[in-house]
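Q: Okay, next protein. This is Tetratricopeptide repeat protein from Streptantibioticus silvisoli. I've checked the sequence twice, so it should be correct. Can you predict the 3D structure?
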Amino acid sequence: MQPRNMSMSGVVDLGAVKAAGEAKQKAEQARREQAARGDAGAVAPSQLVFDVTEETFEQQVLAQSDIVPVVIDFHTDRSPLCAELSPVLERAVLALGGRLALARIDVDANLELLRQFGVQSVPAVYAVVAGQAMPLFQGVAPQEQIAEVFDQLIAVAEERFGLTGLTVDGEAPPREAAAEPPMDPALAAGHEALDQGDYAGAIQAYQNVLNDNPGDTEAKLALAQADLLLRVRDLDPAAVRQAAAADPADVDAQISAADLDLAGGHVEDAFGRLVDTVRRSAGEERDRARVRLLELFELVGSDDPRVSAARGALARVLF
């Protein structure tokens, strides 16, 4: 699946846009104040990545964007693509040593910010520089391509707005560096393959974990995520959705469209589509739609209320 809008063009007015000259003056003033404070101006790596809400957006993002470009990760816990992309963004930002900061916004809890930025689906990645929002890309992207975009962002921020970033305290512990139990090497190999977009390799690694420990819930969920990402990777979303709309009785088209729905975080759409497909189909085709729906239930989690509602709808169709 290729990212869309991988570009530094298309500046969006947030209503707090500042002229480049004013932004440079503020950036220079902030650097002078930081220098006057000495080491007090340095930040820990953990301060470069933070969660943002509608209430804290102005202070954490807009105000800070006068000093350092702030990348925004619009995400939801419901999307496997978000689960894949978010740690890649975090590693890329931390590797730049204060040239960028990363703000993580849960779209489910911050709908007003979602509307303000015009985000249509997640994951979506923006940047705010001197109060101006720039769309970077939507969907997942290889780490190398993300690094290239971040390099462009840093260049724009410095050339147009005079932003050179934050001083990072090299002695501070990395974000969430608290002691954790060592990870199963096979599970770690699966996560690494997933980060690199090697979905087949990730599937094999997670299957190896489950062969040794069938009850490993993390491996089960990761395997389901990798399966989904592999299924949607080479799909043409427009063509799939057009085929599904043109022929509601085409079970294969409906299953593929449901996969895209879920990968994009549209859980209820995916469930509703497959429930309707089960209702319209019969025999082996009906069973295929039902099995895929059950697989998506497992991926989202049995404790999710949308799963409970969809299970009830499925039961009504079947019985």
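A: Here is a summary of the prediction. The two ends are 38 Å apart (CA to CA). Residues 1-21, 171-180 have pLDDT under 50 and may be disordered.
Q: Noted. On to the next one.
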